[in-house]
Amino acid sequence: MISLLSSRSIDILTWLHIQFTTYIPAFHLPLCFFPSHPREVWELNPPEVTNSVLQYAAWGVQGQQLVYIFENNIYYQPDVRNSSLRLTDSGKEGAVFNGIADWLYEEEILHSHVAHWWSPDGRRLAFLMINDSLVPRVVLPRFTGVLYPSGYTYPYPKAGQTNPSVKLYVVKVQGLADTVELRPPASFKSSDYYITMVKWINSNKTAVRWLDRNQKSSLLAVCEVTTGDCVKKHERTSKFFLTMQNEEPLFSNDGNTFFMILPEQQQDKGEFHHISVFFHEVNDEINIYTLYIQTHLSFCFFFPRVSYVGTFTRQCLTCNIFKDKCTYFSAEFSSDLQYVILNCQEIVSFYHLFFASFCSDEAPGSQSITEKFHLDWDSVLSSSDGVIVAQFDSSGSGFQGLNIMRQIYQRVGVLEVHDYLKAIQYVILKYFINYWCCNEL
After folding, report:
1. Which domain of life does this protein belong to (predicted)?
2. Domain limits, the chain
């Protein structure tokens, strides 16, 4: 993906952001900078690499900071005119990844190829070092136009096989370079684990979540980046499996209060996810349902049961806005909480189609059916190729309560198949479906 962005200086225009998925072979493309006066070009080409593929490049958070990745190593420039500083030297293509995700972390854990995070002041960079050296490989064919395809080898851990090891580091990019490892809690050091979330609280502290390989135990900690010491803030366990492990806690300015989404028992209906607030001073937890604004914390949240001394004014801000036109919004508040932007993320389309494609996100706890508008391969099929796309949420799907999600515990691939067949048999009986393309079902 290539985006054209203006920099934070009025005299320069820059081509950024350039990203290449790490496990899909990229092509050689230099990153160049074009100042408006005078006309000059600078190319990102650190002296440590030759004939290498640029894997990632992006602005930092202050001034004209740049961070980019060659050969799985992170490079930093405080300005486009400055020389580069290599922050890591352990990178090895196909084996050790610094600041960028391998296949497992991109697709299944972080859901992003970016595995580094800037501190708010731009003085430090947190990054993952993912080591795939012991991970079994799979060979995938590459069709490049020649008679026979070539093979490309990827680290690809299957169930029960060796997973990549992961470490979290924070490097100081200004002044004397200094790298500190944020160490996992003792209960995780001797076993396989994932790092599922990293979030800066302020310029000196980060929130980190560790998850064990069985995905039954997770720990949220706050780490001091100058020492690497981490303090446990919340621990979750489940006899089934944990979900929403990528969720970032929302911290108050002083870092003493934070919000998370956690499951809560709903009488005899099972557990459902709700917002919870944690007060550091008393280690108290309050579950939240109804929209409420607490001005002295500058937070907007939901309150279910009142155990807080004081009076409240409850008001739902969005319940009756555009209800007949849009039901799926994202919200962004102004800094003073006086205004909110509601972005409708759905679209209504009308189809006159005949063939059918049946899709489902098979990951436990996932959700395929929402009213959020998105563009993907299903959109191409439905808009250009005369295909009806049917999506299913079966047993094991999320956002319908944990009882439904946990039905597939130790039975993955059994109930879902039954649900899919029932759904397909129902859909193909509709008069607008080409039954003959699905008659084997």
Report:
1. Eukaryota
2. 355-438
pLDDT tens per residue, the chain (441 residues)? Answer: 333 343 343 333 333 433 434 444 433 445 555 455 566 777 788 888 888 889 999 999 998 899 999 999 999 999 888 888 999 999 998 899 999 999 999 999 999 999 999 999 999 999 999 999 999 999 989 888 889 988 888 899 998 899 999 999 999 998 767 899 999 888 777 778 999 999 999 999 999 999 999 999 999 999 999 999 998 888 898 888 888 898 899 888 888 788 888 888 777 888 888 888 887 655 444 444 333 333 343 344 444 443 444 455 666 777 777 666 677 888 888 888 788 888 888 765 544 445 666 666 667 778 888 888 878 888 888 788 777 788 888 888 887 888 888 888 888 878 888 888 888 888 777 767 766 665 444
For residue 26, give Cα distances in angstroms to 18, 132, 242, 421.
11, 19, 35, 39
Q: Which residue type does 438 have?
A: C
What is the Cα–Cα distance from 297 to 137, expressed in whole angstroms?
A: 50
Q: Which residue has the tokens 């709903």?
A: 266
